[in-house]
Automatic annotation (TrEMBL):
GO BP of this protein: polyamine catabolic process
Ranges of biased composition (kind: Basic and acidic residues): 229-238
InterPro entries associated with the record: Class_I_gatase-like (IPR029062), Peptidase_C26 (IPR011697), PuuD-like (IPR044668)
UniProt name for this protein: Putative glutamine amidotransferase
Chain positions covered by the region annotation Disordered: 229-257
Pfam families reported in the protein's UniProt record: Peptidase_C26
Taxonomic source organism: Micromonospora echinofusca
Length: 257
């Protein structure tokens, strides 16, 4: 059986390589791809595109990656001074997410991805977390991960997937204030929401940290497993494929030679 196909949403940022400088490019930290591959999946990078979500027809799971802030207009607020949003990325990812929810496609949101899940569910965000918790431990310095303890609601998907995990990495300056229709099931030592989920769906999970950069990226492995189960269920509903000799027009083609 082929590997489950996991679509991973990508950044569009000005970057440089070789002789080129400040060129808008579609990019994604390789850690996401490595984690999906290690879990037995096949990564498919998805640039921002809000025209349609047809690509989901061939995917078995969706990973909403980290990145810049969600546009505050999406949850009815004006941007704060430190908010840096990417409205085009929001539009493309929300189109994918809406279509994924319509078919119960397994979805994992990482960092910004978790925040987008909450906003799509009618929730809201804290635009600058240090103003709320009074410290910078969730993003100590540019390009430097923090770390903190974490706890999960007993019996939740997060608790099942992350059994035994008591500490995670951290790099974010925004956080979920209201999970909307989702359920908060994980919290840091200072009470910041670290996991959200929808218990009424087969697999919809958001984590505030970056499991792709953890030694044990369990949430990504759980997404790949759920994607494999989703593919098996979809193929079962579709029934067995017709043999090649039974395809329409096959007999006619064979006798016309």
């Amino acid at each position: 059986m082929s590997r489950p196909l996991i679509g991973i949403t990508a950044y569009v940022e000005p970057v440089g390589w070789g002789v080129w400088r400040d060129v808008p490019a579609v990019l994604l930290p390789e850690a996401y791809v490595r984690a999906v591959t290690a879990a037995g999946g096949r990564a498919v990078v998805l640039p921002p595109d809000d025209r349609d979500a047809d690509v989901l027809r061939v995917l078995d799971g969706l990973l909403l990656a980290g990145g810049a802030d969600v546009d505050p207009a999406r949850y009815g607020q004006l941007p704060a001074p430190r908010t840096e949003s990417r409205p085009g990325r929001d539009a493309g990812e929300l189109a994918l997410l809406t279509a994924a929810l319509d078919t119960d496609l397994p979805v994992l949101g990482v960092c910004r991805g978790m925040q987008l899940l909450a906003v799509a569910a009618g929730g809201s965000l804290y635009q600058h977390l240090p103003d709320v918790v009074g410290h910078d431990l969730h993003r100590p310095a540019p390009g430097v991960y923090g770390g903190h303890g974490v706890r999960f609601a007993p019996g939740s998907l997060a608790a099942t997937v992350l059994a035994g995990v008591v500490r995670v990495n951290s790099y974010h300056h925004q956080a979920v204030a209201d999970p909307g229709r989702l359920t908060a099931t994980g919290w840091s030592d200072d009470g910041v929401v670290e996991a959200v989920e929808d218990p009424h769906r087969p697999f919809l999970l958001g984590v505030q940290w970056h499991p792709e950069n953890e030694p044990d990226p369990r949430p990504i492995a759980a997404l790949v497993r759920a994607a494999g189960e989703h593919r098996s269920a979809r193929e079962h509903r579709a029934g067995p494929a017709l043999p090649v000799t039974s395809l329409p027009g096959r007999a006619r083609d064979a006798t016309s030679r």
